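Notes to self after the Tuesday call (sharing in case useful).
The group wants a holo model before anyone commits to mutagenesis around the pocket. I volunteered. Ligand is pyridoxal-5'-phosphate. Logging inputs and output together so the record is complete.
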Amino acid sequence: MTARRSFGSDNQAGAHEAVLRMMARVNEGDAVAYGGDPWTQRACAELQALFGARGGVLLVLTGTAANVLGISLLLRPHEGVICPASAHLNVDECGAPERILGSKLITVPAPDGKLTPALIASRLGDRGDVHRVQPRVVAISQVTEYGTCYTLAELRALGEFCRSEGLRLYADGARLANAAAWLGCSLADIAAPMDVLSFGGTKNGAVGVEAVVVMAEDLAASAPFQRKQQMQLTSKMRYLAAQFLGLLEDQFWLRNATRANQMAGRLADGLRGVPGVELWQKVESNAVFASLPPAHIERLQREWDFYLWDEPARVVRWMTAFDTTEAQVDEFVSAVQETARDT
Ligand SMILES: Cc1ncc(COP(=O)(O)O)c(C=O)c1O
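Result:
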């Protein structure tokens, strides 16, 4: 029997060995602080090339910080952010965007976690009214909070719509690697319609690092100052850079994401036809959302770690990570099957 693993979150996985190796490698002697070291220069240059980012790349410590910094580059004080109601930004960042940006989040219900031009247009009615916050940024997540992925055509349509409406487009890319793996495209393809986006390392096998990728050249000058103001200019930046260098080596970022996605696919396949279990969203990344009877959830949670996502809807979230194995997935599928049979 294999070690029982958590299906709670890709945040619960450990770090990939290439990341740890690279952290050890940069741990030699002194290095210029605050990102002036050669590893940070190299990591940022490599990321910039991968994305085709004309405004540069800045490393930060958390996904919340990446979202707040990325969006702050795009907003003036009277402007607001349109985002899906389910966005991490809106639900799970303790009001950091509202507090640190000082801006209103203008939310839109989106059943699959995705915005469309029509959903965005539904929030543009108050433009020009001095009493109302002025929508300026559209913030999407790729992959979404529900594990779904925008297609490249959908992203292009959003980009064109935003440009035609004078809006700017931001993407929370905490799981961007999973999206690239799912779509079979380059990071530059996903990033092309964006003004700014984040690129997550943490959920992909890093210890804790995210990149803010500035696509638009006009935003480059102020970005380093805003990162400092927002307390994300860490002095020993080389250790953050090392994590991305580890993930970039041999395309581990893509291999890790591909594996995590494949394990979620295997899990979803194993669940098809299990009585009482229904997939709640399409499985397009490393998350499986399913609804099942409360008694089944309760029994499974006695042995297994995962989140009850939406209690009234009886929806749970099962997540895989870069190091999830076939045997672990199969063991969990057997537990779900057994529960369905015996409960
Ligand atoms: C989609 C998404 N964005 C942002 C974050 C924020 O990351 P952190 O917890 O590092 O602030 C998370 C974390 O789970 C996330 O799932």
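Two things stood out.
Residues 35 and 237 are 5 Å apart (CA to CA).
The chain has a mean pLDDT of 96.
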